[in-house]
Amino acid sequence: MADTEHHVRFYQVGSFAVGNRLVPLELRSLQSDANRPNALTSGHRACQGCGEALGARYAIDAAVHGSDGQLVAVNATGCLEVFSTPFPETSWQIPWLHSLFGNAPAVASGMAAGLRALGKSDVRVVAQGGDGATVDIGFGCLSGMFERNDDVLYICYDNEAYMNTGVQRSGATPPAARTMTTQVAGPEPGNVFGQGKDVPRIAMAHEIPYVATATVADLRDLEAKVLRAMQIRGARYLHVLVPCPLGWGTASCDTITAARAATQCGIFPVFEAYDGEVTSSTPIRRQIPVEEYLRMQKRFAHLFKPRRDDIIDRLQAMADRNIARYGLLEQEVAS
Amino acid sequence: MNEKPFAITLDVGSSLANHTGSWRTERPLYVDRMPPCNHACPAGENIQKWLYLAEGGDYEGAWRMIMQDNPLPAVMGRVCYHPCQTACNRAQVDEAVGINSIERFLGDLAIEKGWSIEPPDHESGKHVLVVGAGPSGLSAAYHLRRAGHAVTVRDGAPMAGGMMRFGIPAYRLPRTVLDAEVARIAAIGVRFEFDAKVDDLERAIADGGFDAAFVAVGAHLGKRAHIPAGEASRILDAVSLLHDVELADEAHTTTPMLGRRVVVYGGGNTAIDAARTAKRLGASDAIIVYRRTRDHMPAHDSEVREAQEEGVQLRWLSTIAHVEPGSMRIEKMALDESGFPQPTGEFEELEADSLVLALGQETDLSLLDAIADITVDDGVVQVDERMMTGHAGVFAGGDMVPAERTVTVAVGHGKQAARNIDGWLRAEPFVHPPVPELAGFDKLNTWYYADAPHQVRAKLEAARRTSTFDEVVHGLDEQSAQFEARRCMSCGNCFGCDNCFGVCPDNAVIKLADGKYEFDYDFCKGCGMCVQECPCGSITMIPEEG
Asked: What is this model's ipTM?
């Protein structure tokens, strides 16, 4: 049992919890550090249980760590921008700039070029926005940033609709979900099937150095991916699932639980890709049917009154396709 | 002139000025809930807490935590039927934590390292008589002595231990272990008087000038049943058999003669002990005859299993109708609708050299005959919640009061009695602190616990085991014990995993230097995510006031 020492060290919560008093500091998450940067500090006006506020702090704190504190951020318009910077207050403890809804990738590209011209190659640039700014409104700028391979880490906090303006459908809204603009009416209530964009895969098609997905339910994985991204120069893309209690109709305490359910049913695959090729995925640990994930969200409540097995089956098929495409269960068997 | 940049009229401020705590309708609160193991422990051990210390490698701290409640950890780690493990929430995840084996590891380590307990730092001037040096008496004596009282323990036997020595065979509890733990109790100043049977408690109290007495004389008389028997049939009772084996060992006299084929009549732990002992004394066959079925057998599963592994045979649904030298007649039984065995009229002969009766034990209560106000019901002494009999100042516990008859229950009685005797002597009645809400499985978020198998204790080869009185179940090594301790889910009690600190979207959890946390109610919006993601259920939400 040469391996026992290794295993013993990781009990009793292994690496699933934020910290672990039984392991050395360097094996704990960055968020467990009492002196973490808190790049997004308290007093912000995000809703109770906001997944995006949590995801942004996880990601930007890790990026601060990965850049030795030399980090600047560009923010697209959206919840994150609005709740963090009502004039004249700011929650950001790093240099931070907001311009427009659609131009964050372009502004970040310019920043990176400017820093290079000034010879400040140690200062790193992140751009961040919600799914509206990323998938829809800023998509052209983002694609340009990718194809030029500008030295920017772009982080998309995906809560699957325009939540700030009152829950309108975006290109990242899942099929059948109810939003203000995809009402529960007609034979196929909620958002239509067959539309929307899978931006992580589009980013991979640009063959940029690094593309990854993550969720607020797996902090260690999210931190590791940000740190890996910060070690690479060029265009990098991180897509983080951040449940929204308001738009999804989940309890404010269930934000992480909902994100975990999304990964455990397979509807949101967690993987990373180098140079356009998927190199690893996070296996499902405790598989659940997609129905369990849907049931905890009011935006899917119409699928259960009366019950719409046809639609639930189609969503399950989407999850099954992800499981097959990214090998979400095969790895578990292999290991 | 405005010297600020274009279109800027206010200085940049931090959002820290915005106290979002005012949004809250409910607030999170750190709580300590009652872990199921602690709740189930008859000795009232704080199991979760000593496991926490053991997880971090502080074995001495863990041992001292046990010693606050139970002076016999190494004994417990061998003979306790561990109701804590039956209650353990981890059983619903994979397997219960092997608490008993860790307790044994700690108890053995303490003996190996010679850890001791300090004598009390003050003397109360009161003197308590403890009658009986079994688990209950030892426990009471230890706790009373730690509270500063002078304690004298009297026992009719030549050595301490009671049923732990004269009832539990050495292959389950090596005497060196028992002696070491008793010696530690003597070392803090408890006075032992052996071969000193108390026949009249009232006179003993008066003669010795005692201020209170705790009586725990156990139940050492084997129950007899009338079984028609021919002359020269060999019939013994199990309690006497185990007692004689123990004394033969000590005094190097001959062991009881049982013959080649031994039948044990009864279905309790004593029956199992007697059958396994018979095997060790050279019987080729040991057969337990029980009138009901295995499901109804009061003996514990692990002991029945170990007995079967050693070749002890079991005959269900049988009673013994008649005994002759060399054989006995067995009547087959059938369970009726209410689960009681009824005779069927079918008989068969069973070849056997001797019969050992293990039909339960009774208490010799003659020492209480002269005392008024003591109520004896169904052969046991009635006590109140303080363990006090009807006679003021006379307390009782262990097998002689109505309760499950196990070593751990007896130890618990001793502790409970000691606390109440202490309160009674100081005229400040002991008040039990409020018991917190149970940390049931529904309070946990088990996602966070890494999967880990149970470390099974090695067992001696069954064939080797039956020929000797060597210990059957072996202990864990340090690494395995720590591994096992770390499987504890710390139900209802914070273990410093940082989850609340990490998952708060408002950075409203403050991590303190001592591994504890507190909420920053200036910014906590009351979303409840910390409660939902706390692995061990140590946070609750309460309505905001006003």
From this structure: 0.94
